[in-house]
Amino acid sequence: TITPELKAVLDQYLPHSLHYVVILAGDLPPSSAFRKYAEQHEHIGAVGCYEPNNAEKLEFIRSYLVANSLRASSELVTWIAVHLPNDFASLTNELDKLALYYNHVPAEIEANVARTLLGNNTEGEASKLILAIGEARIGRLCKGWEHLERSGINAVTFIRYLMRHWLRMWQIVNAVKSGATQQEAFSALKPPVFFAEKPAIVSQLLKLDTTKAAHILEKLYQAEAECKRSYTNTNLIILELLRQLHLIVTAVRNKH
To answer: What radius of gyration do the chain's Cα atoms show?
Structure first.
């Protein structure tokens, strides 16, 4: 929406200004009051910016690799698409790191090189921490979160990473419960599980059932709501969440 106060300022300022005013907005549907105002205003240009869909992003990455004589497995290309930005300019900047690393000569991209070079690696570090739940001691998990927090990741973003991981875990155990093999359940996941992460995921899946997986997801939703209500205590909320997840996963294992 757009407030009457902002409308008044823009209506008074724009017709006589020698400067440009740039307003960045999120997803604005056709019914949006702000979008309608911008499209109808004599002195405002409304520029639509649309993120590429997954197929376009994959095709862009493959084309870049071919143009730079680089090769990568389909699995690695998918991983790159999932973990890199959705705008082509930022995506090109990231892929340039690979071309520079391989000195612009034909090469097969190694998975560990891609994971090290691409992005700010915050999500990669978060993924390592999530996969360590149930394996590492709780003290290590807490230190891992403190490192992520210092790197700039906020509590809600980290919880979203946890949700994505445990939703996939629930999908696997639910598929197995419905009669699929574990391998079939893994193969059905989109995007696919990165091969280097699969052993840790299999370890977490050990005797995990749909009830426990749903219980974990419920705790994650509760933790996100708590973080949004209490920004000053988010660190304590995450530490307590990690403790609870650790206890749930280890209890499931010890029970069996």
So the answer is: 23
Quote the pTM value.
Answer: 0.56
- Name the residue with tokens 């999530």: 130
pLDDT value for 136:
67
CA distance 147 to 125: 9
Tokens of 242: 């990690």
Q: How far is CA 119 from CA 87, 144, 221, in A?
A: 13, 19, 27
> 């034909």: which residue's tokens?
106
Decide: helix, strand or coil at residue 66: helix
Contact present, 142 and 237 (Cβ < 8 Å): no
Is residue 82 classed exposed, middle or buried when 0-12, 13-18 and 19+ CB atoms within 10 A define those classes?
Answer: middle
- Residue 45 is predicted with a pLDDT of 83
Residue range 15-43, pLDDT digits in tens = 888 888 888 777 778 888 888 888 888 88
Element (H, E) at 71: strand 70-71
Run of H or E residues at 107: strand 107-108
Structure tokens at 139: 């003290």
Cβ pair 162, 221 in contact under 8 A: no
Low-confidence ranges of the chain (pLDDT < 50): none
Question: pLDDT digits over 41-67, tens only?
Answer: 888 888 877 777 888 889 999 999 999
Beta strand pairing call for 70-71 and 107-108: parallel
